[in-house]
């Protein structure tokens, strides 16, 4: 058995979506994949190249879910920190198997080319792939909630944007906690630069923004940019898209989540006729800000990469969300 799920990138609306503004995201071609190979043991062995191996007796899978739920309750009541809920990162996979009612002995192999900790929904993608592999065939809206429910153990709260993008594929809009799939395609000219893993976590950055900007009128400006960007992408209006991406980055600069080193690169892209913005929470300190989206229609990308000494990868959308695939 094998299933996979795409990663995601936020095109517009990071941070502002917390305050009721819309956000749009797209599923991307990078995938998380979950394989299952049955055997005659009484255990499940979970293997990940980045996280090692965890072997659990079948009876411990269901018991482990109960224990994790109790610890999450303690977290919700302020007794534990979120990183104390799971004592091994692969126990999140075991939790997903228990959630799905999966009781077959064998080996679960997790592979992913989605960068971790950089705003691409890697946790949600892995969870979605494991749930599909384990036989979860819920309708889309219910499947999104299942992904979020499992992901809460890792982040304290499952992301609507991440879960919706990896479950549905394509482009989505999230507003007031509800996700809708958009019948849009980005077209050519979109690139991604990985500026490195931020020093501050998503939770830390979101909390800092809340402390400093929760009551700001700036969220109306973010909302207007996102709505206009949806229309401009639909109309293929390249000048407008470029202007809106740059305006989005200016607003992100204003709330203090763009590291100076990243700001320097995005400013130079703007001066060279393109547009660029961070995708995701950004960072409060350090030099890295996670994934950076660049819009460069008709621009000399090779020349720009040489000038800025960065690597720009073409953004490839994934039209299909989490699904089972043939071995």
Automatic annotation (TrEMBL):
| Biological process terms in GO annotation | galactose metabolic process; isopentenyl diphosphate biosynthetic process, mevalonate pathway
Q: What is the lineage of its organism?
A: Bacteria, Pseudomonadati, Pseudomonadota, Gammaproteobacteria, Oceanospirillales
Q: Give the first-level EC class, as a single word.
A: transferase
How is this protein annotated for GO cellular component?
cytosol
Query: Subcellular location, in the record's words?
Result: Cytoplasm
Q: Pfam family of this protein, just one?
A: GHMP_kinases_N
Does this entry carry the keyword Oxidoreductase?
A: no
**Main localization of the protein?**
cytoplasm
- What GO molecular-function term can you cite, just one? mevalonate kinase activity
From what superkingdom does this record's organism come?
Bacteria
Return the PROSITE patterns for the record: GHMP_KINASES_ATP
Q: EC number(s)?
A: 2.7.1.36
Provide the GHMP kinase N-terminal domain boundaries: 94-170
Give the species this sequence originates from.
Neptuniibacter caesariensis
What family is it from? Belongs to the GHMP kinase family. Mevalonate kinase subfamily.
- Pathway(s) per entry: Isoprenoid biosynthesis; isopentenyl diphosphate biosynthesis via mevalonate pathway; isopentenyl diphosphate from (R)-mevalonate: step 1/3
- Per UniProt, which keywords does this protein have? ATP-binding, Cytoplasm, Kinase, Lipid biosynthesis, Lipid metabolism, Magnesium, Nucleotide-binding, Transferase
Q: What is this protein called?
A: mevalonate kinase
């Amino acid at each position: 058995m094998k299933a996979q799920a795409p990663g995601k990138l936020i095109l517009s609306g990071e941070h502002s979506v917390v305050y009721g503004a819309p956000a749009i995201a797209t599923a991307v071609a990078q995938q998380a994949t979950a394989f299952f190979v049955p055997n005659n043991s009484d255990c499940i062995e979970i293997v990940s190249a980045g996280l090692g191996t965890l072997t659990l007796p079948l009876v411990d899978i269901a018991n482990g879910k109960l224990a994790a739920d109790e610890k999450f309750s303690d977290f919700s009541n302020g007794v534990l920190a979120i990183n104390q809920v799971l004592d091994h990162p692969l126990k999140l996979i075991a939790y997903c198997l228990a959630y799905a009612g999966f009781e077959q002995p064998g080996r679960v192999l997790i592979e992913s080319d989605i960068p971790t900790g950089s705003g691409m929904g890697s946790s949600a993608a892995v969870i979605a792939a494991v749930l599909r592999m384990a036989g979860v065939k819920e309708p889309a809206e219910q499947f999104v909630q299942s992904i979020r429910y499992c992901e809460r153990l890792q982040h304290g709260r499952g992301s609507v944007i991440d879960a919706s993008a990896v479950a549905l594929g394509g482009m989505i809009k999230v507003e007031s906690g509800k996700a809708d799939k958009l019948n849009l395609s980005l077209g050519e000219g979109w690139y991604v630069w990985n500026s490195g893993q931020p020093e501050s976590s998503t939770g830390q950055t979101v909390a800092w923004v809340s402390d400093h900007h929760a009551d700001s009128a700036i969220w109306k400006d973010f909302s207007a940019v996102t709505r206009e960007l949806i229309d401009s992408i639909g109309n293929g209006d390249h000048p407008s898209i470029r202007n809106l991406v740059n305006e989005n980055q200016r607003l992100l600069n204003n709330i203090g989540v763009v590291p100076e080193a990243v700001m320097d690169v995005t400013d130079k892209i703007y001066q060279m006729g393109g547009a660029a913005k961070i995708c995701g929470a950004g960072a409060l300190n350090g030099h890295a800000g996670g994934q950076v989206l660049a819009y460069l229609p008709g621009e000399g990308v090779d020349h720009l990469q040489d000038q800025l000494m960065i690597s720009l990868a073409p953004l490839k959308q994934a039209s299909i969300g989490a699904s089972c695939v043939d071995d």
